[in-house]
Every structure is written in structure tokens, then in C-alpha cells.
Input
Amino acid sequence: MISAESEKGEKSQFGVQSVEIGLRILAVLAKAHRPLMLSEFAKALNMPAAKVHRYLVSLGREGMVEQFGIGGRYGLGPLALSVGLAALNQLDVVRIAGTAVADLRNRTDQTAMLAVWGSGGPTVVRWEECRRPIAVNTRVGSVLRLLDSATGLVFAAFLARPVTEQLFAEELAGCQDEREREALEDQLAEIRRRGMSRVRGKQLASINALSAPVFDFSNAVVAAITVLGSERQFNVDWTGPIAEELRIVARQVSERLGALSKG
Output
């Protein structure tokens, strides 16, 4: 990279414009949270569609985007997912909690996972399957629902409402029953009291789950650790052995991140 001195004596650096444009295209796609048509890229970037298409072809060759059908929409590709997960793995919470999640799986003999709050909501960054695999589509990179999953409910309960407000609105769209909304707020209050959420075969039929928050040095929630398994082999009692193991692991990870112990 070539550097130069400006007239004001400040050091400036020359970049590669094509790389910057390619990253702008990826930024538009990431912000949209959904695959986009070529015309949508052109409008968002104020750029001719033919020019955008050339960049999308190059990005597609490298796996950063992929097209769904001839003339179809463009979504993020496998390399984009790998880059995103690599960035997440550099976070202390993923590095520290990753080993703890594997240990939790061994101690409970249930599938365990770690999720962080991503641009699209609760995002799975670590998945440790037990010796009895469960039939679910959730894997590393999956984005979970906010109000229908044990993991999502942890973030709904402990994150500041402005952070989750958009997903709240989307998932509650069409719900006019004030009693249902009040019941949800009561459920979130109970999760905060217990320091844990649970679901019984809700989003994933015949699957039970317990989830606990992980806090950092500022006592802000930065992740959720979740244990899940078949209804027939998974005890969701608040004081059951699985819940106790989950509490211990979540507390230990939080303490390693500098969170103040609440006993």
C-alpha cells in the first residue's frame, strides 16, 4: 500500500477502490438480513446495476455471496459465514465459553450450545452434540427466534429493550391480545428472577431446553449457554440436575469474564 503526504502535512494512504466497493456491497447485504435482488443493490448503492453485477460475480467466485437460481436473489456465501465466525471466535466470550460448553455437554450428556447477539438476533457460535443426536436444523451460524426459543428468551429478558425492540415487534406482529403480551412480560420477569429460561417442545417439537445468560465485567449479558434434548430424556425442573449444572457453568464463565458474583 502506498502512502503520501497531504498538503496539510497529514499522512494519508491510498487504498484499492474496487475492494472498498466490494465491501460496501457486502455491508448492504449484511444490513438487509435477507437475500437481495440486483436492482435492490443498485438502488442502495446508487450504482448502475451492470457495475454491481460485475462485483457480485467476483464476490460469488470467492464464496462471499451466492445466487439462488438464475436471475435470482443474492445472499451471503459460505466464505462470508466463515469470516464472520472467525471474527466471533476472537471474542473472549467465545474462546472462554467454548470449552465450558463442551464440558457441559459431557457433564449432562445433553447437546449444548453457545449463542451471542448478532445483527439478526441470537446467533449460534458453538454447537456440541451429545452421543444421542437430536433431530434439529440448528447449527453454528443459525439465527434463533427471540420469543420462541430458550436462548432467545434469555436475550429478551436481559438485554436492554431498545436492542431487541425490532425483533419484538416483528415476532409479535398481529398479536392484539393484551393478556398474551402481559403474560410474556411476566415470563421475562420470571427468567430474570431465576437467572434461566426454559421451553418445553415449543419452537422445536419434542425438544426441551434450558438456557442461562453469560455476563461480562460490566454485568451486561454477552452470551447465552443452552442445553437441549429430547422431552423423554431431559429434565427441565428449575432445581433439577441439568439446571444446576447449567447454572454452575454459566456462573463460572461469567466470573472468568469479570462479572461480579451475585451468589
